[in-house]
Design brief:
about 425 residues, 4-stranded antiparallel beta sheet, LVIVD, LVIVD repeat-containing protein, 6-stranded antiparallel beta sheet, globular, mainly beta
Length: about 425
């Protein structure tokens, strides 16, 4: 099946919008593809969780680094396990098929991963022989609907069957064509793209030995608790007994929540309309400290002792037209104050190591800045990585997810930051 780049699909969404209603109409006959979901029972899916042979990366999603391993989400399909003992020559070791997977986190030898509405705890002590240890069902209720089809407590979409067809239509086209209860693609694209698009609408600790997540993550580990944000809520999960996670409570956050970043007993939560700060000194019951609002735009956030760094980017389902870095003074966590904003191209994920700030800036790739003076952040180096999305930086290595692969950059000489390895994406 011919693969059409996801960028084309997103470009069409940009012009057409994301709702099922639109002023753009079409009528007559149209050659298209009909997508029909393949359902399996929850029991079948859980029984099938194991280490499968390594697969090529097609749609890289969220990143998590633990020790010598990179865990890379294959958006909507599962998790790649990559041995990164030698960053110049990473080895793709295994793949775990997890339908509907969008986020990951690791504590000790347990991988936490969402499977549509459920949270799975998977033993990865032997990457070649992983084992499902436990499941918390139905804690992500906003993941019940996929392309108009319902995922229930007993059924999970594990695949899609495509059929070439011609249909008679008089409908609005943007999120797809619906007719007689079936979903049709407005353009030709692959089953993998359906998994990629079917994700819900939309780093961590200070040491890679404890694990580090990218700034686009919706999972955060801190003080033996896993915090998982949905579109409007914060789930608090006790993982003191790693293989046996226990859901504790849900905190209402308001709508349009996107990312979460933990730092020294604080949770920095990014939303399309601002940033919220929660105190997790009592890890089982985080409480709101303060917030900062901005124009509507997607909003990853990271923080250190004094400042929060927020990127706003346009051209997405979040709406808005801002492409900026905002630096916030957070000495008073109850009242964050903006210090300065910087215009960028299309900034998404970001990471900080000491005074160095790494920003994935869309088509301008990875940008490395000197942020020792937040009022005068200076560009040091630009590394060409197509449509860079997210980055984790530590121990002089920056791991970057781009549109054509997973890159690693050596910044031991910050002025000569350069690519040392790349895992290339599969091209259909």
């Amino acid at each position: 099946m011919k693969h059409i780049a996801i960028i084309l699909w997103l470009a069409i969404l940009l012009f057409a919008g994301i709702s099922f209603t639109s002023c753009v109409k079409d009528s007559g006959f149209k050659k298209t593809k009909k997508f029909t979901p393949v359902f399996s029972t929850s029991e079948q899916v859980r029984a099938s969780i194991k280490s499968d042979a390594a697969e090529d990366v097609a749609h890289p999603g969220k990143l998590f680094v633990m020790g010598n391993y990179i865990f890379l989400n294959e958006a909507g399909r599962g998790v790649h396990i990559i041995d990164n003992t030698n960053p110049s020559a990473p080895v793709n070791k295994a793949f775990i098929h997890i339908p509907g997977n969008g986020d990951i986190s690791v504590k000790e030898n347990i991988l936490y991963a969402d499977c549509f509405t459920d949270l799975m705890a998977i033993d990865i002590s032997d990457p070649n022989n992983v084992k499902l240890k436990n499941v918390i069902p139905n804690i992500f209720p906003d993941r019940q609907w996929v392309m108009g089809y319902q995922v229930t407590g007993n059924t999970i979409i594990t695949d899609w069957v495509t059929t070439d067809t011609t249909i008679d239509i008089t409908v609005s086209e943007n999120n797809g064509i619906w007719k007689d209860g079936s979903y049709y693609a407005p353009i030709y694209y692959s089953v993998n793209d359906v998994f990629f698009y079917a994700l819900a609408p939309n780093a961590s600790s200070s040491s890679p030995s404890k694990g580090m997540a990218g700034s686009m993550s919706r999972f955060a580990l801190m003080n033996d608790y896993l915090y998982a944000v949905t579109f409007s809520k914060l789930n608090v999960i006790d993982v003191r007994e790693s293989p046996d996670p226990k859901w504790m409570k849900t905190v209402d956050l308001g709508n349009s929540i996107e990312t979460i970043f933990p730092y020294k007993n604080k949770l920095f939560i990014g939303a399309s309309n601002g940033m919220q700060i929660y105190d997790a000194s009592n890890p089982a019951s985080p409480s709101k400290l303060g917030s900062f609002g901005h124009v509507t735009s997607c909003d990853p956030v990271i923080a250190d002792d004094k400042y929060a760094f927020v990127t706003l980017y346009a051209g997405s389902t979040c709406g808005g037209n801002m492409n900026q870095l905002h630096v916030l003074d957070i000495k008073d966590l109850t009242q964050p104050v903006e210090i300065k904003s910087y215009d960028l191209t299309n900034p998404k994920g970001l990471s900080k190591d000491g005074n160095y700030l790494f920003i994935c800036d869309g088509i301008d790739g990875l940008r490395v800045f000197d942020a020792s003076d937040v009022k005068n952040i200076k560009l040091i180096k630009r590394v060409e990585i197509p449509d860079a999305v997210d980055v984790i930086s530590f121990n002089n290595i920056a791991i970057v997810a781009g549109s054509d692969g997973l890159y690693q950059c050596d910044y031991s000489d910050i002025n000569n930051t350069h690519i040392i390895s790349k895992i290339t994406l599969r091209k259909n």
